[in-house]
């Protein structure tokens, strides 16, 4: 079994980027340890604060954010970071080569029930000639990502990562603290009979999504003439991990539940990195209007519709919008 750094060198990833990836992962090892300690870690509760998006922060959201932020800004490799838990981007080294966006703790509502949670990250090159404090540096299309990944703190701590040469899984060996390459070139099956969506929002979706999911639910009695199974982990890291592992269809579609917030998932630190991983594994990741990684960002916290997974099923879903 190969360790992470030699595996990346074999893919010709440049040494600065490898060092940066190792820096991100150092923080995730610390988060993994604390998560594994459960209530004993003393950080499993709620804070009294809200983030800029009006969501109540859990202690673990704050701790994970601080760990990633400190280690990245001190590393020297990073010109700026942006995070779900930071109002705006935070400047690092003006000469740093990279910028990093992250969701320090994805699936916060799962913390208290001891269910799946994770960390999502996305790395891009820092544009030259811009001030490290300028958040506009982050307004680059997802196609510009040089690395994306998530760490899933499940029964095992698993890293899924791509540097544009396939999506690979690494497992944290907790006996010596190294991520080991455990599955190379993960491939998402083109077909699936499993879908993931929060069904409680059904009546708020646009008509094409209602029709598409409605036909899946009709199963062998409906136009699809076969039964579909449903799963919903309520943490994108968990749902995308299942899709990468055994195929599937995942969506957080547009809804009109609250008119000022038509989408749930965030482009920079949820949708873009997951899209890179999914596309590198042969799947599709789109909105009802086009490829997610080609969206021109307007805001570091912008939200977006997400439809991803097994190629043929994503295309089938899109056909309902035509
Ligand atoms: P976060 O915990 O970082 O705010 O993200 C939670 C997101 C995503 O991971 C998940 O797919 C979705 O919210 C779950 O939404 P519901 O609560 O509507 O199921
Ligand atoms: Mn999240
Ligand atoms: Mn989060």
Describe this structure in words.
The protein has helices spanning about 5-10, 15-35, 60-75, 205-220, 235-245, 265-280, 310-320, and strands at about 45-50, 55-60, 80-85, 90, 100-105, 120-125, 145-155, 155-160, 165-175, 180-185, 195, 230, 250, 265, 285, 290, 305, 305-310. The mean pLDDT is about 95. It has about 325 residues and is α+β, with helices and mostly antiparallel strands. Helix 2 (about 15-35) packs antiparallel against helix 3 (about 60-75). The N and C termini lie far apart (about 45 Å). Helix content is about 30%, strand content about 25%. The structure holds 2,5-anhydro-1,6-di-O-phosphono-D-glucitol and manganese (II) ion (2 copies). The site of one manganese (II) ion has 6 residues, from strand 5.
Along the chain, the helix and strand elements come as HHEEHEEEEEEEEEHEHEEHEEEEH
Strands side by side in the biggest sheet: 4-3-5-6-7-8-9-10
Classify the secondary structure makeup into a structural class.
alpha+beta
Major sheet details: 8 strands, mixed
CATH superfamily of the largest domain: Fructose-1,6-Bisphosphatase, subunit A, domain 1
CATH-level-2 architecture of the largest domain? 2-Layer Sandwich
What quaternary form is this?
single chain
Q: Approximately how much helix is present in the residues?
A: 25-40%
Number of helices: 7
**Count of structural domains:** 2
Bound molecules: 2,5-anhydro-1,6-di-O-phosphono-D-glucitol, manganese (II) ion
Give me the CATH fold name of the largest domain.
Fructose-1,6-Bisphosphatase, Chain A, domain 1
Estimated radius of gyration: 19 Å
Low-confidence stretches: none
Total strands: 18
The best one-word shape is globular
Alpha carbon gap, first and last residue: 47 Å
Mean pLDDT: 97
Amount of beta strand = 25-35%
Given this structure, which CATH class of the largest domain is correct? Alpha Beta
């Amino acid at each position: 079994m190969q360790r992470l750094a030699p595996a990346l060198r074999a893919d010709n990833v440049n040494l600065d980027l490898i060092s940066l990836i190792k820096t991100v992962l150092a923080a995730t090892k610390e988060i993994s340890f604390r998560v594994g300690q459960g209530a004993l870690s003393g950080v499993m509760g709620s804070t009294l604060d809200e983030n800029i998006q009006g969501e109540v922060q859990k202690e673990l959201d704050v701790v994970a954010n601080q760990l990633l932020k400190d280690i990245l800004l001190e590393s020297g490799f990073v010109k700026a970071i942006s995070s779900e838990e930071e109002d705006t981007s935070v400047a690092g080294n003006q000469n740093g080569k990279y910028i990093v966006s992250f969701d320090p703790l994805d699936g916060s509502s799962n913390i208290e029930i001891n269910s799946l949670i994770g960390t999502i990250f996305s790395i891009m090159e820092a544009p030259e000639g811009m001030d490290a404090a300028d958040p506009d540096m982050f307004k680059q299309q997802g196609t510009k990502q040089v690395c994306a990944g998530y760490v899933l703190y499940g029964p095992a701590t698993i890293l899924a990562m791509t540097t544009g040469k396939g999506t690979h899984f690494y497992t944290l060996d907790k006996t010596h603290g190294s991520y080991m390459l455990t599955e190379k070139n993960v491939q998402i099956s083109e077909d699936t009979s499993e879908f993931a969506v929060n069904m409680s929002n059904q009546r708020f979706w646009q008509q094409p999504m209602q029709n598409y999911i409605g036909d899946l639910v009709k199963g062998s009695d409906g136009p699809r003439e076969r039964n579909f199974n449903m799963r919903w982990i309520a943490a994108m890291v968990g749902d995308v991990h299942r899709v990468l592992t055994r195929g599937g269809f995942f969506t957080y579609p547009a809804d009109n539940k609250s008119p000022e917030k038509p989408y749930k998932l965030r482009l920079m630190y949820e949708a873009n990195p997951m899209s890179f991983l999914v596309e590198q594994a042969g799947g599709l990741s789109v909105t009802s209007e086009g490829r997610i990684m080609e969206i021109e960002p307007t805001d570091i916290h912008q939200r977006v519709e997400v439809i991803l997974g097994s190629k043929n099923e994503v295309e089938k879903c899109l056909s309902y919008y035509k």
